[in-house]
Design brief:
The chain is about 50% helix and about 10% strand. By secondary structure, it is an alpha/beta fold. It has a five-stranded parallel sheet.
Length: about 260
């Protein structure tokens, strides 16, 4: 937790104790940020905290730090408790919940947005993040870390879109990608924020850049080749996501800075 976290904890504690107008979830537009890990989602979360009041966002920083122990609810726990979580005043849902909120949570589907990232870079970022003290790769050898990463990380983006390797349903995942209202690309972060703002008539500030990598695990050519190979499913998703992103930026008159 840093000074920005503390700032929003205080801000949200104050706002949550004020009487605020409730929203009618059956008629009001609402939003779902499908936060795929290691795609700059933490930065987006803080931008959303500037756009929306604490009582209209789940999780706000009080939920996130005090109730959920500095993490999102696990998808299974969210599925079990979403009716209690999505009270009528919640206008924005943030989390690693895949397609479930789009299909199940309310009569009116949320307007959904998600960010996608070069899958090799995303995996390397996850390797570094999870290798920190107290995290799940802490104490493992580099070979063991790669083996653990290989189990799921090369298809993490696809999995959020409903991909299941046992079903080999990549086409279904691509169809689900097409249902997302705004597809952002981490490598085009500023343009993605502009696309969000123009699509939803928001004014998200592009002033939070959280969880920047300070030191990277050295990876030789053999490990890099292996990572490239097990990221093939997510590479297909990423390429499709970029196509959608470029199309929507062009339609909105957003200039892409290469």
């Amino acid at each position: 937790m840093d000074l920005i976290d503390i700032k929003y904890l205080i801000k949200h504690l104050v706002k949550l104790n004020l009487n605020q107008t409730r929203l009618n979830s059956n008629s009001e537009e609402w939003y779902y940020f499908m936060h795929i890990p290691k795609t700059a989602g933490t930065s987006i979360r803080y931008m959303l905290y500037d756009q929306f009041s604490a009582n209209t966002v789940y999780p706000n920083n009080v939920d996130y730090y005090f109730k959920n122990n500095a993490k999102y609810l696990y998808p299974g726990d969210f599925k079990d408790h979403y009716k209690d979580i999505l009270k009528p005043d919640i206008k924005v849902l943030i989390g690693h919940y895949g397609m479930f909120p789009i299909r199940k949570c309310r009569n009116q589907k949320p307007r959904t947005f998600a960010f996608f990232r070069n899958p090799v870079n995303r995996v390397i970022s996850e390797l570094n993040y999870s290798s920190k003290k107290g995290r799940r790769y802490d104490g493992l050898t580099l070979e063991e870390k790669i083996l653990e990463s290989k189990k799921t990380q090369g298809r993490e983006m696809a999995a959020h879109l409903g991909y299941n390797p046992r079903l080999n349903n990549l086409e279904e995942a691509i169809e689900n990608l097409n249902q997302i209202d705004v597809v952002g690309i981490t490598e085009y972060f500023s343009e993605s924020i502009e696309l969000l703002n123009k699509t939803f008539d928001w004014s998200l500030p592009n002033n939070y850049h959280r969880n920047k990598l300070k030191k990277s695990i050295p990876l030789d050519d053999a490990y890099m080749k292996e990572i490239h190979e097990y990221c093939e499913i997510d590479r297909i998703i990423y390429d499709k996501a970029k196509e959608l992103f470029f199309e929507k930026c062009k339609a909105k008159g957003i200039e892409i800075n290469s």
